[in-house]
Amino acid sequence: MDAVQFDLKKKQLLLVKKPIPSSLGDHDALIQVAYAGICGTDLHIIEGSFPVSEKPVTLGHEFSGVVKAVGSKVTHINIGDKVSVDPNSGCGTCKPCTSGNIHFCATGGLDSTIGIHCDGGWAEYCLIPAKQVYKLPSNITLEQAALTEPLSCIAHGWDRIQPVPVGSRILVMGAGIIGNLWASILHLQGHRNVIVSEPQDRRRELLANLETDFEAIKPSELKVRKAANPDWGFDLVVDCSGYGPAIEEAVTLLNSGGKLCIFGVASPETKISVSPYEMFKKELTITAVVINPFTFNKSLGLIDAMGDRYLDYTKLGIKVFSLSQYKEAVKSLKEGSIAKAIFKM
Predict the structure, then answer these.
(1) DSSP labels for 9-78?
(2) Are 329 and 25 in contact (CB under 8 A)?
């Protein structure tokens, strides 16, 4: 089978031929991959700024597909089922796992993610623990289900920042796919007083396709508006960029009682400087979000509610590529000419 594999030692991404996985355990499932996304985290991995398996690994932690085989102890899915895969899990016995914080598991969470630390979905087939496979409702397509993982992370973020009253002034920083999905969910939830900040002209243009009527501006315009009116600001800022200077500026844009949601994945070397006095004076809240503890079903609920109105690939700025086009897909995503790249097998 074809697979796109990353070699950390060589810092090289290659299309390779690999055998279809055959060592099916009692609790495993073999998935024929249908769609697999390229995430911003994948770009960090490729450039060497995000932890990944030291051995060559097939990337891809956002994917959907069809069940081709199941282990003898698997009962919740069957051959032929359309499914989506949660790449994150835990040991199930440590204190974080048994306290409902599976994403803090020392041997699970980000340290065992499918597609980062073991072979993932940038391949025609993927062998994984069946407990991480979710059967799709009949009204959700495999195309839509490729977005289940990022939406499950947003669902966790949404839980973390509540309450967000309708009418709040909100800023979304970044109009890649995560920024666009946040904008879509905010619109779905009734929010209309939303601005999206994005430096790339093409991505600001793509934002108009979502038909939310949210204003899209350059980051430099934020400073201009703040200088013109010191009282101008936001009740909530959701950073989807992972860019240190943008996160620092976000703190200065918050109204009293405001919240900053750090959602974008920054490089481990990125540092920010904030004023504790300003945080004290304004009683600010800074909330960070990591992956998706027990929110995969919530994500499927979001997909059901959003439907084609919000999850149309063209509207979201998603372009589909074949595995053999992996270089073009990565290049397009880095350039910002698209919001997201997704492989179709």
Answers:
(1) TTTEEEEEE-PPP----TTEEEEEEEEEEEPHHHHHHHTT-S---SS-EE---SEEEEEEEE-TT--S--
(2) no
The Cα 75–Cα 131 span in angstroms is 10
Q: Terminal CA-to-CA distance of the chain, rounded, Å? A: 11
Q: How far is CA 139 from CA 81, 300, 330, in A?
A: 13, 11, 31
How buried is 100 (Cβ within 10 angstroms: 0-12 exposed, 13-18 middle, 19+ buried)?
exposed
Which pairing describes strands 2-7 and 12-17: parallel, antiparallel, or unpaired?
Answer: antiparallel
Residue 267 has a pLDDT of 83
Per-residue pLDDT tens over the stretch 220-256: 999 999 999 999 999 999 999 999 999 999 999 999 9
Q: Which amino acid is at 279?
A: M
Q: Which two tokens stand for residue 38?
A: 């390229």
**What is the distance between the alpha carbons of residues 340 and 334, in angstroms, rounded to a whole number?**
10
Placement of tokens 């994005």 in the chain: 198
- 64: its two tokens: 């959907």
- How many Å apart are CA 264 and CA 17, to the nearest integer? 33
| E-state strands within 149-250 | 170-173, 194-197, 215-217, 234-239
**DSSP character at residue 137:** P
Verdict on whether the full-model pTM lies above 0.85: yes
Is 45 within 8 Å of 6 (Cβ atoms)?
yes
Rounded Cα–Cα distance for residues 39 and 36 (Å): 10
198-230 burial, b for 16+ CB within 10 Å, e for fewer? bbbeebbebbeebebebebeebeebeeeeeeee
- Which of 341, 287, 292 has its CA nearest to residue 313? 341
Residue 112 clears pLDDT 90, i.e. is over it: no
